[in-house]
Each structure stands twice: as structure tokens, then as C-alpha cells.
Amino acid sequence: MFDLVQKYKRVIQVFLGLIALTFATWGIESYTRFRGATDAVATVNGLDITRREFEDELRRQQDQLRQMFGASFNVEAFDTPEARRVLLDGLVAQRLVSSAAMKSRLTVTDERLFEVIASTPAFQEGGIFSKTAYVNLLRSLNPPMTPSQYEARVRHDLALQQLAMAVGAAIPSRTVSERVAAIELQKREVSEARIASQQFLPQVKIDDAKLKEYYDANAAEFRRPERVRAEYIVLSADQLARNEQVSEADLKAAYQQRLSQMTDAEQRRASHILVKTKDEADKLVAELKKNPGRFADLAKKESQDTGSAEKGGDLGWFGRGMMVKPFEDAVFAMKQGETSAPVQSDFGFHVIRLTGLKAAKARSFEEARAEIEAELKKSRAAKRFNEAADAFQNMVYEQADSLKPAAERFKLPVQSTGWIVKSSAQELGALDNPKLVAALFSPDAIQSKRNTDAIEVAPATLVSARVVEHQPAAQRSFDEVKQELAESLRKREAVALAQKEGMAKLDLLRKGADAGLSWSKPREVSRRDAKGMAPELVRQVVAADVSKLPAYVGAPAQEGGYVLLRISKVTDAQPAEKSPDSGQRMAATLGAAQYQAYVSSLRSRASIEVRSLSPEKK
User: Fold this and answer.
1) In this structure, are residues 401 and 384 in contact, taking their beta carbons and an 8 Å threshold?
2) What is the predicted pLDDT for the residue at 150?
3) What pLDDT score was predicted for residue 380?
4) Cβ–Cβ contacts within 10 Å for residue 491, how many?
5) Is the backbone peptide bond immediately before 550 cis, with ω within 30 degrees of 0?
6) pTM, full prediction
């Protein structure tokens, strides 16, 4: 259906995402490389996955994590054998799908290829494709690409998309979608009663003999790890950008250079009615000429595009390149309020009404000022960082007995840390990097008191540190830990007593007896709207048997103790509450299952050889 392009756009992205990798991040040669490379980590149907490809994809995913969670995010902590295995499985799946696409002889026409490239905003000036912008942007990539290389990649990606969409095109029926929505939106009225563990603390008695017995049996718990305190300096492009000054003249000059990019492209809003035949479309056009106000009503009754039909045919705002070409050409040739003659596309015949128009608009200097200033600061800071990085690295190495010379030259503050251990959950900020922590615990840093090398802890961020205090690992004595151990064991015993009491009361409630509890004010929760209830409790509530009310469930509380839940009322969703995106979510679920089954079938018939995944020694 036509609305698949809009309504199921995110679903299609899920299918393509299941391939697990961005195909355009590899060179075309990787798709056709045959056995013979000595550094392959795996071979799939004669196609090698080289170590370089594997490491490049690992770095790409680590960069994505840094972008999502911040530059100080410790991505190396995720470089485990298990994570590498998952990554390799994704690469194997990509090779399997790539091989299947080639065997299926899927093709992409030159017209379709140009349509995709020309509609990419990064290659446009003033909303129109610019060959100069296209070539310049490809040259600026790392590594640079020629148009022919990029076009080969895009053509291959589009062929893979055809296969992924065909395999995962699971559009559920209206009945299934409505049933899913009903389940998700069903509300259950719930009250809580909590049995706190604190009330059992006075009952818990832990004698010295039991404490000593636990201490002797778990001595490793009371060993203080080796630790250091350090000072450090950070050289980063972000910091340089904050200190960068941009003159008014430079801002205005940059605005004039970017003027063609400062235009918001024209957007249009339209409604449509999708039918299978031209005769049906002609009848709709005739009816609308007689009764123009019936468009929304006819869309709801007649349109085969169920997603937009529920909204009277409304497709929302869109620009060029977002709809199939025949539909787009018709819409962008129409006048406000006009109703089209039947328009044919691969989805069927459309009767279209243009309901809104936003003309292309160039942003003023003041509107674009902040964006331009940020871009200039960033580009200048990147240049300054590249110029300063070598000098920074040399200085902390050559003058290794102090960070002060480098701090003074680059105007950086010398910062201090609390205690740092080799491996533990700890907030280290800029020092939260395994290589840097390892360097701080090296003999060079601890015994010789030398600066660490300048280590890149994030893109365009260098840190050097030095140890100011060191404590070796040591066993804490029983007397030292006795009080905290007693408190810990008392709390543990109190939690166990609270949970035992909670389960006993739950048993009484289910038998219809009075458990002597004080219940909270009821609240309605559903699978979609938990109203702040913890996920593990929501799962208990929605899974409960409610054939007889009230129904009772219970679970250990996160903070210790036990939670009892009373379900007193069940309210089924009303038709008006059901969201039109239920079909989209159901389609994602079914499509994902279909795609995974397809990849599994390819895997079962494939010749796959896996070699070592260990990091390459340098």
C-alpha cells in the first residue's frame, strides 16, 4: 500500500537495521573479495570478512556510542569477547544477505540511483542537486571517495534494501492490529501495599562468631584494591571551540558563502484516497466535483491506505524526495485546495487534494547566526587542535616530571581526582578510559612518578595524567570491617524476613482472608502507560489472572522488602483510544521475525568459516 512509504517508514528502517550494519561504511571491494586474504576473521560463501573491516566496524560503533552518551563514555569496556562475537554475527548476516542479493540479480536503474542521490539534502544547494557540492563532499570524506565509488555503494545498498523490504514486508491485518492495541491499552486499577525491611531490623541479631565466620569465608570481599590519586590536564577541540572568538565580519562573510544552504526547502501537505482501479478513481473524482466537502469521509470509507484513511486521507507535511515520483510530481504541480485527476503509482490510483503549502524560505542572518558561529568555532578549533596535538604529546613526554609546563603553554587547568582503582564502577570523567587507567597503574607512573603519555580518550580529546599518591592492595582487618559487616548482614536478614512475610500475606489474600494491610490509592496502569510503576511490577500486573477480582500478585521490592499489588478493576480500551500506529508496531514485530528467519535459513545453507577474534597484537 502507498502509505507503507510514510506510515511504515520506521518499520522498513527496522528491517534494514536488522542487517545490523551500515553497508555504505565498507568499500565495494569488500562485497566481492574472494578467499585468499590472510587476515580474514571469517569467510562466508567465499566472501572474506577481513580484520580491517571488523576493526573499522568496531570503531564505527564505538564512535556512535560516544555520540549517544558523551565523549567520556567508556566504550572500551564493551570491547569484550562476547561483544566481538555479536559484531561478527552481524557481519556474517550482512555477507549472507549481500550474497543472496547478488544471486537474485536485483538491479537498480540509473534513474532510481540518481533520484536517491539528487534528493540527499547534503548534495543540494537551494533545494536543488548540485554536482559541485556532491563532488566536494565526497572529497572531504575520510577516506575520500570518487562519484563512481559512491554511486556503486548506493546502488548496492538499494539492491539490499529491495531484498530486506521484500523479506520483511509484514503488514498485519486490521483485526490483528486492533487486537494488539486492545491488549496494550487495557487498563488495570492497582493498589499497593509495601512491607518494608526496616521494621524487621530490631529482630535481627548477629553475634561476633557469625560475623567472623562470614569474614573468614569471604575474605576477598574485604580486600582493599590498589589505588591512586592523580592530577591531569585535558586538551580537547571542544574546549578550544569554547574559547574561540568569531568576529562579526567573519560571521557575515560565512553567511553569504552559505546563503544557498540557508534555505528551508518548499513543503506541501496533501490528503489522498488510494484505490485499485482507474474506474474507481474516476468515480471518486466525479463525486468530489459534486460534493467537495466529502473528501475526508470518502477517504475513510474507500481508501486502501488504511494508515491515512483513519485521518481522512491526511499525509502530513513532506518535501521533495519523500514520496514516490508520480505522486510527488502531481502534488508539486497543484494549487492550494485543488483536487487532482487520478494519479497512477506502483501502489494503485490516487485522488489527491493539496491542503497546505509552505514556500521555500531563506533564513535571515540573525536566524542563522548561532548555527554559523558554532560551525566556525568548531572548524577553527579542530584546526587548532590538530596543530597543538603533536606539541602537547611531545611536551608531556619530554618534560615528564610535571604537567605544569604543558598546562601553562596551552592554558589548561591542572585538575585532581579522588581515589582511582584499576577496575570498578567509578565516576572518572575525562579519565574514564581503560588505557589511561592502565597507564596510571604502570611502574613508570607509580615508581618513576612520570606523566602518562597523552592518550586519546575520545575523538579530538587528549589527556595526560600523573600519580600524586599511591596505596598498594591490602587486606582490611576484621576489626576494621566488623561494624559495616554487621550492618550489611542485618539488612540482608531483614530483607529476607520481609519477603517471607510478604509471600505469607499474599497467600492469605489469595485465599480470601484479611491480611491486615494498608493499601495505597488506586491508579490505572497499562502496558503503554505504567504511571511510574517499576517495569518488573507492571509485568506482574499485566500477566495476572483477572478472571476473578480482586486479584493479587507480589514481588520483591527494588529497595528491599516486598510489594503486594491488588488489581480491583479491568477496563478494556475503547475504539477512540486505539492508536493508528498499532499496525506499525505489529508490522515491526512480524517483519523482524520474518527477516531473522530468512537470515537463519541463509545461515543454515551457507559455508561459514570463523577464525580468531582476538585483538590484533601490535
Assistant:
1) no
2) 85
3) 83
4) 16
5) yes
6) 0.45
